[in-house]
Specification:
The protein has 327 residues and is α/β, with parallel strands linked by helices. The protein has three domains: 5-99, Beta Barrel (Elongation Factor Tu (Ef-tu), domain 3); 112-216, 3-Layer(aba) Sandwich (Rossmann fold); 242-325, Beta-grasp domain (Ubiquitin-like (UB roll), Roll), CATH 3.10.20.30. The chain is built from seven helices and 18 strands. The strands form four sheets. A six-stranded antiparallel beta sheet has the order 4-3-6-1-2-5, covered by helices on one side. A five-stranded parallel beta sheet has the order 9-8-7-10-11, with helices on both faces. Strand 8 (138-143), helix 3 (152-157) and strand 9 form a beta-alpha-beta unit. The radius of gyration is 20 Å and the shape is globular. The structure holds FE2/S2 (inorganic) cluster. FE2/S2 (inorganic) cluster (FES) binds at residues 274-277, 279-284, 297, 299, 312, 314.
Length: 327
């Protein structure tokens, strides 16, 4: 699996772009040009020992800096608190990347870009990329209030500002916005879990095919987002213990109910790279050589899940008593 290039980055600027959202311009610590990235890409940043993913929102044509924006989650797991509360100009960060799980498909019609909240970040890099390619697009940004609308000045100054419609307040019906499917038109959405599901649901109802719908989720659904239909993504009362086998050594490791495969492996000193630990980033994706995974992630495609050849051991389990892993 591509883990990206190891980077040492220096904070060149930090600035508030909305209430509780802090942006950082990052330059190479050695002042050399940064590795190129494509729209939709992210960095995996070492946040004082915790690895967290942040989308790049700057212009992919600018190799002098990467810009990320971080929502200050005071009750989160600590990654955003570390960045927002302690990181200052000239501090350095270790990172891996850029990697891209939200790449754009070559467009034959102007794409539709939809962002909610901090989900504006990858969508901004898409807007820059489309602008440079001379491809038209329609972009909609949703925020719960004016204070939480990010990058107002930056987007207002962008040469593509006229293609952006900014919305305040909660929208639950996106059918008018998505409209009927036009062959070759792709839709990209990033934002809160419930909003992504509402957008995708509306698009499907309007006839958009799955291979023209693209989303990136920053977090697994909160309990408020969960419906009865998707509550099976959480730990289930019917979960059973199972074993995983390391193909390289043949060693078997028991995985208890309520324990993740990653935690079980860590218990014997095998550390699978992890970031989100909730099935949304793909960092831990591992090949499965035998057995049937019980997928509980939000990152693998339907085809990848159906193939049964990869799974995310931070959250997924097994439908069979044994999974043999390519480890
Ligand atoms: S650590 Fe993010 S999907 Fe497993």
């Amino acid at each position: 699996m591509d883990t990206g290039i190891g980077l040492s980055l220096r904070v060149a600027r930090r600035f508030e772009v909305a209430h509780d959202i802090v942006a950082f311009d990052l330059e190479a610590a050695d002042y050399l040009p940064l590795p190129p990235f494509e729209a939709g890409a992210h960095l995996e940043i070492d946040c004082n020992g915790q690895r967290r993913h942040y989308s790049l929102c700057s212009d992919p044509a600018d190799s002098s800096r990467y810009t990320i924006a971080v929502q200050h989650e005071r009750n989160g797991r600590g990654g955003s608190r570390y960045l927002c509360e302690t990181l200052r100009v000239n501090d350095t960060l270790d990172a891996l990347g850029p990697r891209n799980h939200f790449a754009m498909t070559p467009a034959t019609r102007p794409p539709l870009l939809i962002a909610g909240g901090i989900g504006i970040t990858p969508v901004m890099s898409m807007a820059w990329s489309l602008h440079h390619a001379g491809i038209g697009f329609e972009m909609h940004d949703f925020a719960s209030s004016a204070a939480r609308q990010a990058f107002v000045d930056e987007i207002g100054r962008a040469p593509w500002a006229g293609k952006v419609t900014r919305h305040l307040g909660r929208c639950t019906d996106f059918t008018l916005l998505t409209g009927g499917f036009e062959p070759g038109r792709h839709l990209y959405v990033c934002g809160p879990f419930a909003m992504i599901d509402a957008v995708l649901g509306a698009a499907r109802a309007m006839g958009w095919p799955e291979d023209h719908l693209h989303c990136e989720r920053f977090a697994a659904p909160s309990s408020a987002d969960r419906s009865d239909a998707d509550s099976d993504q959480a730990n289930q009362p019917n979960d059973l213990p199972f074993e995983v086998e390391l193909a390289s050594s043949g060693r078997r490791v028991p995985v208890a109910v309520g324990q993740s495969v990653c935690a079980a492996l860590a218990g014997i000193g095998v550390h699978v790279p992890m970031s989100c630990e909730q099935g949304v980033c793909g960092s831990c994706t591992t090949r499965v050589l035998a057995g049937t995974p019980d997928h509980r992630d939000w990152i693998l495609s339907a085809d990848e899940q159906a193939s049964g050849t990869v799974f995310t051991p931070c959250c997924s389990r097994a439908k069979t008593p044994l999974l043999v892993l390519d480890l």
